[in-house]
Amino acid sequence: MTPKERVNKFFNREAVDTMPLFSGMGMVTIQAIEEMGINFAEVHTSGELMAASAIKTAEMFGLDGVVVPYDMCTVPEALGRGVSLYADAEGILYPTVPSKWATLDEVDLPEDFSGIFDQGRMPVVDDAIKRCLEYEGGKYAVGGWVLGPFTMGGQLMELDVLLKGLRKDKERVTAFLEKMTDLVITVAQHYQELGVDFINIREMGSGTDLLSPRMWKTLIMPNLTRVFDSLKAPRVNHICGGTDLIVSMMNECGAEAISVDQKNTLTETREKIGDQVLLLGGFDPYGTLVQGEAADVEAVIKGNVDDGVDAVWPGCDIWPDVKKENMEAFVAAVRKYGKAPTAAVGRL
Amino acid sequence: MACDKRDELIQALHEGVVEMDEDLVLETANKVLEEGCNVYDAIMNGLAAGMEEVGDLYDQQEYFVPELLMCADALYVGLNVLKPHIDPADLGGRAKGQVVIGTVQGDVHDIGKNIIKMMFEVAGFTVHDLGRDVPLEKFAEEQLRTDSEIVALSAMMTTTMMGMEKVVEMIKAKNPNVKIMLGGAPVTDDVTKLFGADGYAETAGNAVQEAVKMVSQLRKLQD
User: What are the boundaries of each domain within chain B?
Assistant: First the structure.
């Protein structure tokens, strides 16, 4: 079974030989970047380097999938909000959006979003996705991802304005989020047309660290549901931060898989969502792969498996500056504990 | 001047902040001036105390971030009215000098930082706000330029938090007496010690939460 076949069968909930090892968030490591002789800032502006770094990481550690791009600014940049790449900064910094709209009055969006794919770095992302798909005749599963409508909104306009607007200016914020939903659908459908193996919608800024479950139900859930209704399977619904109070509603949005981070109580989530939905999660990638010791990694991964996930996913992007031995321990542990069937996926 | 309505007005300011009622806060703040009540008392025991309760409501998951931000807006309404009228004698030995504050490079999340800034202002500090996504060396430069006693660094993401260590090194190398406070979701006591900083906004997973908790810490600083 090839890595790609393993992931595709997994999403179809067909039996696989072992738990697939992949993610819907960034999985590039500094070891791959250094071996290529480049720095992290360079990968964001070249489809060739973006794809090569993702594939190099998968080859080095024996992963089943690759995901591009690595930063969350490509769509805002294409809509004119700019990007800070930190080419001269010491160490690793992810790009950020430098000029968000400061008020709802400033919002200036096109009628439809079909024209954004030749703007900014969108062509670079397309190029990277195509290169990943073509690598060795389609060896790896290729994940596409788009921020969810609310999180995308927070990348385009100041988050505090958006958050306060949810209460103070509900009508206009609701309309803005509906427009964001159109945007997310346009981009996600585009990546599906390119041929990605799954699409991950990352509504990461909507956990209960920020929003009440009540607000999630009225302002986030309808938009996410519309996004998933517009997409083909397989679809992943990812939220990081506090999700225990909203995970049942996440499950009602229509995706084949729910992805959560280390704040989620996985055992309870499995009970809530049942055995028909894929549960992906949820270890702390920074604490486990960067800060922790290699000897402690296995217990973390085993804990996730024991708690009922169908695939062990990092709860967020893997921070590129991982310890090599921790990354190797992560892969070894998934292979060791991933042999047994999980709640939603059997084994060959 | 005696202020017969002190308790009533303090309560109204408190309630206005907790209930996100900017009109009530504005009206009450003006009454504080009309009645000749102690403005500093009204700020600290009305507005700031109200914000402390907001922090408790957040901890109890009764309030979430949109509510916190609206409470902070209500507090600002009162602060804008009252602050110009603070009797310098009230600040007396209480004014704690100057603070340089900012969110470190690579991090554009500044909601928590802005609430911390507000609390410093409430407590009588002069605040030099560098904004967000601030190049690391800028903190040391601004501290030297302003001769500030405190530098407060904020990071919402674990990954940008790592830049704080470099800032601490840079500042301590030039001026070991500067107090450096760290804040933000990923910051813990261990990180603070590891980075050689002097204090942190207690963390439980969210920058705003820690920011609100700073009220208590700042009030203790004044004693």
Answer: 6-91, 95-222
Residue B95 scores a pLDDT above 70: no
Residue A348 falls within a domain, yes or no? no
Answer yes or no: is pLDDT of B96 > 70. no
> Out of 3.10.150.10, 3.90.550.10, 1.20.1510.10, 1.10.1240.10, which CATH number does the structure's domain B6-91 have?
1.10.1240.10
**Domain residues for A192?**
3-334
pLDDT of residue A254: 97
- The pLDDT assigned to A197 comes to 98
CATH number of A305's domain: 3.20.20.210
Interchain pair A208, B61: CB under 8 A: yes
Nearest chain A residue to B115, by CA: A160
Which of A163, A170, A319 should one mutate to test binding to chain B, selecting the residue with the greatest count of B CBs within 10 A?
A: A163
Strand order in the sheet with B150-154: B126-129, B98-103, B150-154, B179-183, B199-200
Residue in B with minimal Cα distance to A84: B106
Q: Tens digits of per-residue pLDDT, B10-24? A: 999 999 999 999 999
Q: Name the token pair of A161.
A: 């304005």
Task: Report chain A residues touching chain B, CB-CB < 8 A.
Answer: 84, 86, 89-94, 96-98, 100, 159-160, 163-164, 166-168, 208-212, 215, 241-242, 245, 263, 286, 319
What's the mean per-residue pLDDT of chain A?
96
State the CATH class of domain B95-222. Answer: alpha beta
- Closest-CA distance, A320 to chain B, in angstroms, reads 10
Q: Which two tokens stand for residue A212?
A: 């009440």
- Binning pLDDT at 50, 70 and 90, where does residue B195 land? confident
Averaged pLDDT for residues A308-329:
96
Q: Is the peptide bond preceding residue B163 cis, with omega within 30 degrees of 0?
A: no
Q: Following DSSP, what letter does each residue of A264-289 receive, concatenated?
A: S-HHHHHHHH-SSSEEEEEE-HHIII
Mean pLDDT, rounded, for B26-39: 96
Enumerate the residues of chain B whose CB falls inside 8 A of the CB of residue A241: 205
Gap between the Cα atoms of B150 and A277, Å rounded: 51
Pairwise CA distance, residues A12 & A30, whole Å:
32
Residue A347 falls inside a structural domain? no
- Residue B159 predicted with pLDDT over 80: no
Q: Among A36, A111, A6, A76, which Cα is nearest to A347's?
A: A6
ipTM entry: 0.87
Q: Tell me, yes or no, whether A340 lies in a domain.
A: no
Whether A344 is covered by a domain: the verdict is no
B66 at the A interface (CB within 8 A)? yes
